[in-house]
C-alpha cells in the first residue's frame, strides 16, 4: 500500500504520524514536505473533500497570523487561495492512501486508512 503524508518535520504530531506509517509493514511512504513543495489549490480541494472537511476546518491558527488576517471569516474559496499561496495556513498532517484521506490529529487517525 502507498501512503502519502503532507508533512512538517517540525511538528510533533506529524513526526508521530510518519513514524506509524514507517513502522507499518507493507506501507510505502511518500513524504511531501508541503512547506517546501506547496499544495496546489486543486489538491487542497480534493484532500479536504476526501477527509470530510471544509477549508475553514483545516486552518492552522497556532503559529500563524491566520486569525489576524481574518482567514476563519473568509469564504471557502478565499481560504483556499490563501492556503495555496501560503501553505503554513494548512493544519497538518494529512495522509492519503487507497482507503481514503485523514487529517491525523491525533496521529492514531492514520490507522483508519491503513
UniProtKB/TrEMBL annotation:
**Pfam families, per the entry:** ArsC (PF03960)
List the protein's name.
Arsenate reductase
- EC number(s) per UniProt? 1.20.4.1
Concerning SUPFAM superfamilies, the annotation shows: Thioredoxin-like
Q: What is the lineage of its organism?
A: Bacteria, Pseudomonadati, Pseudomonadota, Alphaproteobacteria, Sphingomonadales
Task: State the InterPro entries in the record.
Answer: Arsenate_reductase (IPR006659), Arsenate_reductase-like (IPR006660), Thioredoxin-like_sf (IPR036249)
Q: Which CDD domains match?
A: ArsC_ArsC
For the protein in the UniProt heading, the enzyme class is: oxidoreductase
Q: Which family does it belong to?
A: Belongs to the ArsC family.
- Family matches, as PROSITE patterns: ARSC
Q: Which UniProt key words apply to this protein?
A: Arsenical resistance, Oxidoreductase
Amino acid at each position: 500500500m502507498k501512503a502519502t503524508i503532507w508533512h512538517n518535520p517540525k511538528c510533533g504530531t506529524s513526526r508521530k504520524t510518519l513514524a506509524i506509517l514507517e513502522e507499518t509493514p507493507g506501507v510505502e511512504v511518500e513524504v511531501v514536505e508541503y512547506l517546501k513543495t506547496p499544495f496546489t489549490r486543486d489538491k487542497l480541494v480534493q484532500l479536504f473533500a476526501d477527509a470530510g472537511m471544509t477549508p475553514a476546518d483545516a486552518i492552522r491558527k497556532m503559529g500563524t497570523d491566520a486569525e489576524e488576517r481574518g482567514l476563519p471569516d473568509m469564504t471557502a474559496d478565499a481560504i483556499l487561495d490563501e492556503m495555496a499561496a501560503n501553505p503554513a495556513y494548512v493544519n497538518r498532517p494529512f495522509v492519503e492512501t487507497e482507503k481514503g484521506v485523514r487529517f491525523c490529529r491525533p496521529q492514531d487517525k492514520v490507522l483508519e486508512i491503513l
